[in-house]
Each structure stands twice: as structure tokens, then as C-alpha cells.
């Protein structure tokens, strides 16, 4: 990331928003901060995946939650777990990292499956199809109760990952009065972000990345020059889906349970908001967007209390979603390039 | 006779009852500079779309080098050596001129995901070669000074040159040019015309749709006239110019 | 099966009217309005608000008294209000965006944000599902179907409204102008049609229709903050199935989707999976987009 005015400003805003956490809370700031950073890491990773779809290739994917969910479910189902109220209890399974790999690949394959027919569709239709596909996914998962636990979800799987937790995480956590399991997830997701970004930086500045950007610009010209635009789009779709799958796994392990009600459109909208805020097409944008976004979200508690006396959970959530909706609207209208996006590279037209 | 030619038989395309293209037979020989002219709405661009795979014909066959490409995908046809440009210039706006060129020069293999991931030293060499080749062509076309500008900053004429440059960097056998002079100032039009002539002399077969009759008559060896989707003349420029049917077709459309 | 068919007709009329509204809007403005569901919900919520005391927990609205007690007047006013709302959206939001030449994708994302925003504003005002203040009725038999007299009247009214719309589009000047703008914006403006006014009119009428669909839905079911969002995908399915860009197609498509959703419960592979009944309709929509994107009645529009 180059040190430019834009990136400096973004970093400053991010630091300021973290500072806000301390400002707006009288106590328990450290746990709040780390909770926030954990979610920021998970959602940031998801947004990076979405950025591959939309920022790099111009694909309007509004079913991102399904990729996250698929990665999560496949991984969890392959390790020891207990499903739902009366579902199966599996006591043996694959080693975590193998299950994770399969989970990521499954998410990517789901991207291929969905993409094969859908990728040819024009922007707005692709949006509708991806939402519909995500909804079908959610309905199917919810219905396969014996396997997936249906609405009750799956539990008792965390240990497969937490057992690898290193000593220094435990030390750090206890020194700061934090939950070591969560810190481990935070550590892993942020490490993943760094690794994935390094990978993407290499890819975007490569002939492959160049080809994808050309597809984003003008598919017909790409075809007339002998390249298979559809296959290129599919590859990008698979890559973004795989990254989303990884983030979904972290999301599930952060909660310790996996429920189909997690992978709903709201989740997709959160990730979109983060991506737009961070800057469509910017590699590091999602990181900053995610941190700032989660500061906003975690402080909505306070805002909700201002509006409602004794705000209950539903009202807090309501205020939260109102703010997210407002954020998305205002960003797209006034600052579609977000924090780190390049104005010259805004893709806002259905071709 | 060498195999490098394009053969079209019985090509038909209608849109809801309206016949857009109805070409009984059309053969393109190697090394010919052929132009297609005709009044507006004669079906010229549709014809291009049909032979380059961008639209499906209702009936008929298209052969390139004896290979049946009637239902082939546009990218396959391009890989077989027939490259087309578009009426509305399609440059990659938010990429630099150099990137536009390098994209075209890069082969499908070079573009591959795995190769871009692993980055063997051989790819670095390939990229270097592609860059040099791109600069060569850009210099020939006089757009090398814009190499690092975004393509959308180019003037209309420069965009046409870029599109041309992209199309020729891989030494195509056949070039389909869709109105290469449209909206270009006269001086630049002269330059483009000369470039097209040079390409033809280098051995590339050229099929050009153009409205600029003067230019067409000047450089074409063969002129095909399309009216209402059908070929009404296919001859040397002089003969076509004095062909009664052609005059009628143009005069008729002028009166509308 | 007959019972499902009856339910299907009822769901069908809701989706039909909503689909026509969406289709009209899309046809003229080329905007896929993801906030469509929230305008539908607005119709129901406004009617509820106007016709009965609202149990609201928002502090400053705690003691608000209803404007009137007559249900049908409330319906009428709320439909007008929806139209007004649509007009405001167009005038203050979408028209400036259009003038600023903001691309379609950006507008689409704006509607998604708007949808999220509105839906949860409704949530904050009205958290629990509520019913219209109408007395409970018993089902009676109409031809083959059992439904309450009120629901039957909704069905008939809905069909009547759609016939009116069909006549309007085909035989009035404004209707023809709308179709002209839909078929070709450039041609229309050249022939002297002021597309800004047409677009405004379309937003208003589409929103009124959407509000009416909401009233129907609330009459047949209940009023929820997310009632529009719940059927939004089904509405897309109805529009796509019938044919994007044709109102008649939207009407027919909407009915088919409504029936499919309810009848699919009876299909063999759906046994024990009735919760997923929407999935069948959605799957149909995806298949249509892939294999016959113009739907049943539409003309081939560029979908890819």
C-alpha cells in the first residue's frame, strides 16, 4: 500500500474510530475493542472475497452469505460435532486443517456451480439470481435438519480448532481479561487477511489480473481478442467464493455454534457495506472499512439507548440495520469510491 | 489456392419478421482488401456479428480455412485468426493504453491463473517481450506517447488506433474492421487508411465496413454492396461505382 | 390440493399486483427497485396506522391517536400516501441520480440500502405482527375454493384493478406514452414525450399499486415490518416468469408463482420439507433466466 494522502487519511480515520471506542465507553473497552476487531477480521476477509467479485471483475454478487455458509457448514460437518436437537452426533472426523481446505474448495466449487449458468447474466439479473440462490441454499440447509441441525444449528465443534491454540494467545488473553478462544480466531482471521492480500496483490498485478480487469471493462472486446470472458469470470467467482468460505468458517468458530440464521441476506449486506466503505477495487480497503464499520455497529448500542428507553435487542438490531442501510445509500450517492477506492476506476454501469 | 479464406453460404438472419441479412454466397480470398458498403440499416454490422460469432444466424454456414465456424464462440473464431473491431470503439477505459496492448498480446496460457500465481522467471521474460512488442505497434500507430494514460483519455481517433493496434498485435489472418474511420477527423482518417493499406500489403486479408465512400474507393481492391441484407454488387470499385442497382439503392435511401 | 389452489390464488393476486407494479417501474426506468417490498409494506402499515390505534413504543409517538376509524377510507388514503411516497422518492432521490448520470448498478445498490433502511424503520415503529381491525370471518365456498368472503373480495378487486391497468396502458394517452418510453426512451423523447413526467407518473402509480398489494397481503395475512421483503423474491420470480417488460406477463407470472408456491407443498419430493416451498418458485425463476430469459410473454431483451 502506497503512502498517499488517501491512505494516510484512511489510516487516520481508522485510528480515530478505534479511539472512539475508548471515548464512548467507560469500562470494558479492551474486551469491546477485541470483540470488534475479531468481527472486523472475519468480515474484512469476506469483503476481500466480495471485492474480487465486484471490484476486480464487476460481478454483482448478492448471495455472498451462501458462500460463507457453505464453507462453514462443510468444514464443521467434517469434524467432530453435534447437530441440532436430535441430530447426529459425530465424534470423529478429519483434522481441522484438512476439513478447512475441503470447506474452502467446496465454497469455490459452489461458486463454479452457481456461476456456470449465472455468470452470463447481465448485472442486475445476476444480482437477483445470486440472492435467489442464497435463499434456496438457506432453505435447503434449514430443512436438512438431521444433518445440519436445521434451525437449532450445530454445536460442539470448536475444540477441533481451539486445540491448536498456542500458548502466547492464552497468555495474552489472560493478561488482558479476554476470551482466549476469540483471540485465537481474531489472530487467525487477521493472519488470513494478510496472506490472502499478499496472494491477491500478486494476482491482480499479473496477466491474469489484467485479463480480469479487461473483462470488467468490455467483455465483447475481450472475446474479439480471443479470450474466453466467461471462463475468466468463473475463475474470479470461484476465488472470491473460496475466500468467503474461509471467512464463514471463522465466523462459525467465533460463535462456537453454526446456525442457518447467520447466513441470511443481512450478512451479505453488511459485507457489501464494508466493501463500499473501504473502497471498491482497493486491496486494503476492506480492512479499514471493516474496522470502521464495526466501530459504528458496536456503538449503535449507545445510539439505540438514546432513542428508546431501555432498548431491547430487537430495537438495537433495528437501529443497527437502519444505520447500515443509510450508510450504503449515502456512500453510493455521495462517495461511491469509499475510503480507498479510485474514483477513476468506479464501475457503476450495467453493460 | 491456399486455405486462408472465408466462405459464407446462405447466411440468413431475421429479427421478428424483418430480414436483416440474406447473403447467398460470399468468399473472401487471401490478401484482398475488401470493403462492404451500403445504405444505413443494410445489415452490414449484423453480417459482421454473424461471421464473427457475436450473433447466431437463423440459417447458413460460415467457413474459415475450411473449418466450420458457424456456431463457434467469438473467442474461438478470434483464436483461429479472424479478429474484428467494433462500430462503437471498445477500448478498456480504465486500463492504460499499454495495458490494453499487453492484454491483447498476452496469450491465453500466459494469462492463466496458475501461471500468474507461481510466477516463474520465464513469465517475466514473456511480459518483457509483450511490452516491447506493444511499444513497437504503438510507435507505428503513433500512440506510444499515451502509453501510460488511461484509455478513456484518448481522443476518438486515438481510440480507433488503439483498437486497431490491439487487433493486429497477434498477426491475424483476417481483420474485420467495422467503420474504422467513423467520427475521425480527415487527417487522422488518411493515416488510418494508410495503416490499413500497409496491413493489407503485409498479407492480412481485410474486410472493412465503411460509410466513407471516397476512402473505400481509394484503397479497396473489391467492393461488396449490401442493401436490405442482400448482396447487390460485388466487383471492383470502378464497376461498383457505375452499377445502376447500387446507385438506385443509395438514391432510394437518400430520398427517404 | 384444492385448498392449496385457493391459497395459491390469494398469494397469486398479491404477487400479481406487486409484479405489475414492479414491472411498470422497471419498464419505464430500468431500475430494479429492491425497496419495492418496503412500499408494499407501507401500504399495509399506513392502513393499519390510520385505522386503529398503533401500539408503538417509540417515545414521541406514544399517545398518537388514529386519524379515522373507517377501514376503507384508511385503505384509500394509504394507497394515496404510497403514491406520494413514490413520487417523493423519484423527485428527491432517483431523479437527481438520473440527472447526475449515476449508473444502474449504483442505483441498484442504493435501492438495496433504501430497502434495509426503510424496513428497519418500520421495525422500530411496529415490531410485532398485527392484523387489520377487521372481524374474523369463516370460510365459504366460491366455485371450488374455500376462502373468507373478504379474501374473495380481495381477489375480485385485484383482478378488476389489473383489468383496469391493462385498459389504461393500451387505450389512454398516458398509458401509451408509458409504453413508448418503456420500449425506447430515445425514440420517445424525440417524439416529444417528456420522459421526466412519465417517470414521475410511473413512480406514483407503481407505488400506489404496490401499496394496494400490501393492503391485500395484510388482509389475507397480517402486517409485519418485513412483509414486503418476504415476498420480494417471489415478485421478481413472477415478473421474470411472465416476461420482463410486459405488464400482462407480470400479471400472469405473479399468479403462477403464487399457485406454484402453494401447490409445491403437495409435490412428492417436498414431503417434510414444506418450509422450503419458496425454493421451488425461486428455482423456476433461475431456470427461466437461464433458458428462456424473456419469460412467457416477453420479447427478447438483453439479459446477458
From TrEMBL, chain A:
Regions crossing the membrane: 7-24, 30-50, 62-83, 95-116, 123-141, 181-200, 237-257, 269-296, 317-334
Superkingdom of this protein's organism: Bacteria
Membrane protein topology class: Multi-pass membrane protein
Pfam families attached to this UniProt entry: BPD_transp_2
Main location: membrane
Keyword Amino-acid biosynthesis: no
Segment forming the signal sequence: none
Keyword entries, A-Z: Cell membrane, Membrane, Transmembrane, Transmembrane helix
Gene Ontology molecular function terms on file: branched-chain amino acid transmembrane transporter activity
Entry's localization field: Cell membrane
Alphabetical list of InterPro entries matching this protein: ABC_transp_permease, LivM-like
GO cellular component terms listed in the entry, alphabetical order: plasma membrane
PANTHER family per UniProt: HIGH-AFFINITY BRANCHED-CHAIN AMINO ACID TRANSPORT PROTEIN BRAE, HIGH-AFFINITY BRANCHED-CHAIN AMINO ACID TRANSPORT SYSTEM PERMEASE
Name of the protein in question: ABC-type branched-chain amino acid transport system, permease component
Species classification: Bacteria, Bacillati, Actinomycetota, Actinomycetes, Candidatus Actinomarinidae
